[in-house]
Every structure is written in structure tokens, then in C-alpha cells.
Amino acid sequence: MKFTRSATPGATSGYRMRETHPTPYCMTDFQPESSWIESVDHSASVFRESDRPALAEDEGTITPASVRSPRPAAALAADVHELLESMARKRVPRLDAVRKRLQDSLPALPSASIEQTLQGLHDAIGAVDFMAGRSGGDRAGEFLRQGGALAGALRELRAELTTFLQRETVGVPVTRFVWADLVMESASLRKRVRQGAHWLAEMSHDLLTRRRGGHSEVAQLAIGELARRGMVMHERLQEVHRLCGQARAAHAASECLAAERSALDDTLHLRVLPACGGLDDALQPLLHAAGYRALVPTELIVAVEAGHALRVVLTQACAQFERLRAVHEELLAELAVLEQKALQLTRPQ
After folding, report:
1. What pLDDT score does 201 carry?
2. What residues form DSSP beta bridges with 130?
3. Cα(283)–Cα(36) distance, rounded to whole angstroms?
4. What separation in angstroms does the CA of 275 have from each of 140, 278, 280, 324?
5. Alpha-carbon distance 346 to 240, whole Å?
6. What stretch of H or E contains 129?
7. Pairing state between β 2-5 and 15-18
8. How far is residue 38's CA from residue 284's CA, in Å, rounded to a whole number?
9. How many CB atoms are closer than 10 A to CB 333?
10. What is the Cα–Cα distance from 134 to 34, expressed in whole angstroms?
11. What are the helix (H) ranges across the chain?
12. DSSP readout, 251-320?
């Protein structure tokens, strides 16, 4: 209850009573799991492996330490145990389920036939003797045979690349949605890890205070047992922390794979296909003219330059295929480690 001056004319008193309400506190992410919501910075070293301070609080959280007294170590130990069990039952399996979805939804690597077609076209361009078209006669026939094979390889590659790029447009966005789920589940686990580290810090502080209090031998044994339990729970909390780190590593590998795949798609769509079209446009008039006359150098130079430009981008595309395979294998390895860490946490203790 609070007294405030009244502004009502003719009032018999200059003050009136006004209802007041306690300042609301922001509930932490762990309220459904436990009733403990306090945040007191006793120790920032309780969770040594974390890249953030152990007792870091979410923005907007108001510390009610001046309102509530610190809780005893036994109650804090119970809360940490409940939190760990909840993560093992719910959150870790959910993260592993996202891992499985990500693994199942990964777009398959481009067919080996595409890379073989790229390499075959590269070799076919090098095999064409453009100068034979200047000679006429039998050599002109050899040029027509080589040029016809090259034109067929160009058509085959363009059709195969068009189909592949259409599949990429559909499959890749679906996978990115699963990556977002992986980030969200990992972030949720990290928040709980920070909360558990905070409770363990308070528990350690309370046990230290009790040890200094000079309690009986029985009380000291109980304190020692709580300290042992705290160390065990601390190790389990670190395992969850490492699981979150592995999820981040898998997500980073996923992003790297997406970048490599996008770069390859851009190369195929923006460089290889236009270069194929440029060489085909330069080659067709030569094949038509070589059937009845010798070709002149000014006609040949356009096709020679177009063939050279195409061979350059084909070499680049083949190198990108190699990098894509390597990054894909790296992601599969990260996901396998993530699966193993999740399995260790969900096993009965």
C-alpha cells in the first residue's frame, strides 16, 4: 500500500491510499522444468568449457536476490538432477531426431555421370582439329566427324545440366528448413546448460559456506556427498555442452556444403550452359559450310576461342565437384559424431 497526495478539490485529506503491485520478474526458460528462477552471480568458473560466463543471464531477466534468500544445496542438487533428466528424456532425443531428418533430407550428390559428361566434353573439344576444316577433302571429312561428335556432346550435357538444376531448385530449400530446426534445438539446450551451470555455482557456494560453519561430522559427510553429486552432475552437464558444440559443428558443415553446392550450381547455370551455347552457335555454321567448301581462318577463330573458354569453365566445374564431395563427407562425419554423443546422453545412468 502506498500513500499519494490527492488532487480532488474539497477533499478532507491531502493523501489517499493507492494499490501497488510487486515488480514482475522475467521467468527463465526453465520455469516449466523447475520452480527455481533466481540468478545470483557466485562463480563464473563453474562451467569451464563454455565460451560464455557460466552465470550469464538472458537479456531482460531481473535478479530477485534481494527478495529471496539463497536456496540450500540439496534443493539445488534436486533441480539440477531434474533438469538433466528432462534434457535426457526430451531435449536430447529431439535434437537427435532433427539430426536424423537432416541426414535423411540431404540432397544426393550430383550423379557421377554429370561429371563424366563434363570431362568427356572437355576431351571432345581438345580432340577437334579445327585446322582440318581449311584443307577440304578427306581432312574436311575428319573435321565434320569430330565436329558432329562435339555437337552431340554439347546437346547431351545441356540436357543433363538443365534437369539437374531443376532438381536442385526443389530439394535444397527443404534441407535448409531442417538446418534451422537444428540451430533452434541446440540453442534451447544451451540455455538449459547455462541454467544448470548457474544452479551448480549456487550449490557450490552454499556447500563452501556450510563447510566453513564447522558442522558435525555427520553434517560434513552429507556435505561431501552433495559435493560428489555436484561433480557427477557437472560432468553430465559438460557432456550436454559438448553435444551442443557438435551440433554447431554439424550446422557449420551444413552451411559449408550449401555454399559449395550453390557455387557449383552458379558455375553450371551461369558459366557452363552459356559457354556450351556459345560454342554450339559458333560450331554449327562451320559444320554446314565444311560440307561444300574449305573454311577460312576468320571463321575458325570464333569457334576456337569459344572452345577454349568452355574448357576453362569445365575444368573449374570439375574441381568444384571434387570439393563438394569432400565437404559432403565431412558433414556426414560430423553428423555421425553428433549421433554418438546423443546416444551416450540418452543411455540410462
Report:
1. 94
2. none
3. 77
4. 25, 5, 9, 22
5. 10
6. none
7. antiparallel
8. 78
9. 13
10. 87
11. 73-86, 92-105, 112-127, 137-212, 217-266, 273-289, 297-346
12. HHHHHHHHHHHHHHHHIIIIIIHHHHHHHHHHHHHHHHHTTTS---HHHHHHHHHHHHHHHHHHHHHHHH
C-alpha cell at 280: 554450339
Give the cell for residue 199.
544452479
Q: Which three cell numbers stand for residue 317?
A: 566445374
Phi, psi (deg, nearest 5) at residue 14: -85, 0
Q: Is 127 helix (H, G, I), strand (E, B) or coil?
A: helix
The residue whose grid cell reads 562435339 is 150
Q: What distance in Å separates the CA atoms of residue 317 and residue 310, rounded to the nearest whole number?
A: 11
For residue 89 the three cell numbers come to: 528424456
Residue type, 22: P
Residue with the bigger pLDDT between 42 and 169: it is 169
What DSSP string describes 14-35? SEEEE---PPP-PPPTTTTT-S
Using one digit for the tens of pLDDT, what is the confidence trace for 70-106? 889 999 999 999 999 999 999 999 999 999 998 888 8
212-224: pLDDT as tens digits: 876 688 888 889 9
Q: 260 pLDDT exceeds 50?
A: yes
Q: Give the DSSP H/E element, type plus range, for residue 5.
A: strand 2-5
Res 327: pLDDT: 94
Q: Which burial class, exposed, middle or buried, applies to 331 when counting CB atoms under 10 A from its CB (0-12, 13-18, 19+)?
A: buried
Q: What are the distances in angstroms from CA 120 to CA 150, 218, 237, 281, 302?
A: 10, 82, 55, 20, 22
